[in-house]
Design goal:
The complex is a heterodimer of chains A (169) and B (98). Chain A is built from five helices and eleven strands, in the order E-E-E-H-E-H-E-H-E-H-E-E-E-E-E-H. Chain A is α+β, with helices and mostly antiparallel strands. In chain A, the strands form three sheets. A seven-stranded mixed β-sheet of chain A has the order 3-2-6-5-4-9-10. In chain A, strands 1-11 form a two-stranded antiparallel sheet. The longest helix of chain A has 13 residues. Chain B is of the alpha+beta class and 98 residues long. Chain B has a single domain, classed as Glutaredoxin, CATH 3.40.30. Helices cover 41% and strands 18% of the residues of chain B. In chain B, helix 1 links the parallel strand 1 and strand 2. The radius of gyration of chain B is 13 Å and the shape is globular. The C terminus of chain B is likely disordered. The chains are: A alpha+beta (169), B alpha+beta (98). At the A-B interface, strand 3 and helix 3 of A face strand 2 of B. The complex binds glutathione (GSH).
């Protein structure tokens, strides 16, 4: 434990379990190309929607390392969202996030819609995603949610793993 | 949601791709854009569908035609969707697979 206070993030008025995850359309990046896709169109089964800080930030790197280690993308669709551009997303997918697809939301409008936006101190003009996970069923109903309350923060991976297990049965 | 029949593989700001887009828009033909990387070696998907890595390349699910080379694509689009006569256009597209 550090002997100083970890930075708390302001309370997030985020989408809650039981709500339908709002639809949006953004470029969705795979290892091969990107094209505009709507979430409603992409979700056709259990889906883990992961909001994360911009590609290259250690929180994004560690998140995908863990997702890869746990092999979640083999069990359910894993969709990431960050403010990074499609080119940056492709770089990320070159090295990690096997089987993952990434939405590009440079204006952070999707992050705002989900209530997980974060104005970064010391990077003027940049609003990005705070770390957050929304586990969705095939109807886009949120079945499990975690949103970072501190900076930095990571989801409770074991708890999330349990929720994924419950969802896919 | 119905998907457009035509998929255009394109590269951001590639003039040959924009040439094809202009014709698609003129003819009011719906299409979806799939953007690929500038790096030639990173374009396996284009190679897989068209046999070469150059863009633009289109896939027309309606006619089963896949082609690259903007000149050929423009000619194909005008022939197939130019709207002179519906049946003629559909017939003409059979020859477009060359
Ligand atoms: N003759 C082609 C030229 C297209 C072209 O040069 N495209 C560039 C991108 S702007 C490209 O893909 N270059 C790599 C290659 O030709 O393999 C056409 O008219 O479609």
């Amino acid at each position: 434990m550090p002997d100083f206070e970890v930075v708390s993030l302001p309370p997030a008025d985020h989408i809650e379990a039981g709500e339908v995850a709002p639809d949006f359309t953004r470029p969705l990046v795979t290892t091969e190309y990107w094209e505009d896709r709507s979430l409603a169109d992409v979700v056709d089964g259990p889906t883990l929607l992961v909001f994360h800080p911009m590609d290259g930030a250690f929180q994004a790197t560690y998140l995908y390392n863990e997702i890869d280690d746990r092999g979640w993308a083999a069990d359910i669709d894993v969709l990431g969202v960050s403010i990074s551009t499609p080119y940056e997303h492709k770089r990320l997918l070159d090295t990690r996030g096997e089987g993952v697809r990434l939405f590009s939301d440079p204006g952070a409008e999707v992050a705002r819609e989900y209530g997980v936006e974060h104005d970064i101190d010391g990077m003027a003009g940049i609003t990005e995603c705070r770390p957050a996970v929304f586990l969705l069923d095939a109807d886009r109903t949120v079945r499990y949610v975690w949103v970072a309350a501190e900076h930095p923060a990571f989801p409770d991976y074991d708890e999330l793993d349990g929720a994924i297990g419950d969802l896919i049965g | 949601m119905t998907e457009p029949a035509i998929t255009l593989y394109r590269l951001q700001a590639c003039p040959y791709c924009e040439r094809v887009v202009r014709v698609l828009d003129q003819l009011d033909v719906p299409y979806r854009s799939r953007y690929v990387e500038p790096m030639h070696s990173e374009r396996n998907v284009v190679k897989r569908i068209s046999g070469k890595r150059s863009v633009p390349a289109i896939v027309d699910a309606e006619t089963g035609v896949t082609m690259s080379e903007s000149g050929n694509i423009v000619e194909y689009l005008e022939r197939t969707y130019g709207g002179t006569a519906g049946t003629d256009a559909a017939e003409a597209s059979v020859g477009g697979d060359a």
